[in-house]
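PT: before anyone asks, these are the final sequences, not the draft ones from last week. 380 residues across everything. Please model them as a single complex and drop the result in this thread when it's through.
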Amino acid sequence: MARASVREQIVDAAYEQFHRHGYNACGVKLITDSAGVPKGSFYNHFASKEALALVVMERYGDTRRVPELADRTVAPLARLRAHFEFLAADIEKYGYERGCVFGNFSNEAADHSPAIRDGLVTAFATWAAAVADTIREAQADGSVTTTQDPEVLGRFLVNAWEGAIVGERAAKDGSAFAAFFTIAFGTLLS
Amino acid sequence: MARASVREQIVDAAYEQFHRHGYNACGVKLITDSAGVPKGSFYNHFASKEALALVVMERYGDTRRVPELADRTVAPLARLRAHFEFLAADIEKYGYERGCVFGNFSNEAADHSPAIRDGLVTAFATWAAAVADTIREAQADGSVTTTQDPEVLGRFLVNAWEGAIVGERAAKDGSAFAAFFTIAFGTLLS
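LR: through. Structure below.
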């Protein structure tokens, strides 16, 4: 099998390093060192760290299992639970270190980079809309009450999930995620 | 009036700069330049940036109006609403730039600094307990249903608030906060 291209090695390394260190603490040199490529090669492939961050955000989004929220072979409420359980396991496996790339970039880069901010707005909107569509299905099959606007609740849950990660990075014991599941599935999606 | 001590000038500047730039993007030189003091003077007053961050966290906590949550001259549900409305206004006034110092530090520093992580655990726990106590009062006066555990709901709401900030730093239009108020006060605290 051919060796990954330099560009691909840089994206792989950046994916790992942005996730681990966040945006500001992760410089081009850290990325190229981690990729095992010369720092000078970076600018042959990317105009800036920001441009690379946009590629990483897109790739990260592809791993969030958002399309599975539309899988009608599974009951909608079970799909919602599986979605957030997957996300929780993905944070837990790193001992609650690292966070969500979207959340990290919102905190660190959205104020300073219009391009990253635009990417985040799209990512959060796509994700919240998929959650809202699944809530709507769950309301239609009677597993979730219809008292709440699915769009508002979808937006709220996506943000509340990001906040559970914030709490969990401090607590590192699963208690913030547990509170999320209790209220989200015990009250809001019931 | 006497000029603020160098230590005080450093804390004031750090409070501002940590809030604006987060932990990693805010170095000692940025803080001392912003304070108008020589960089060398920093280590006369603080052992490290981390030690200063702990002082800033404590001062920030003092501004979050957590004691007002126990003010029994105001109805408990009104107190909860006033609390989150104050926090929302405090973010909105910066055009949704900056965030919560606790949330920023959780994302950026909790993985790497045990001291900051300990401070965050205490700050979030104190805050969530004050919210829980107020929910308990609201349950007792009948303004909030007793179906939810006040401790779990308090914890959830504090985290959901942090997540609303994450969403708002991308959206910057008030929509994430609006979703928080709709679900928190329309469903969870009703």
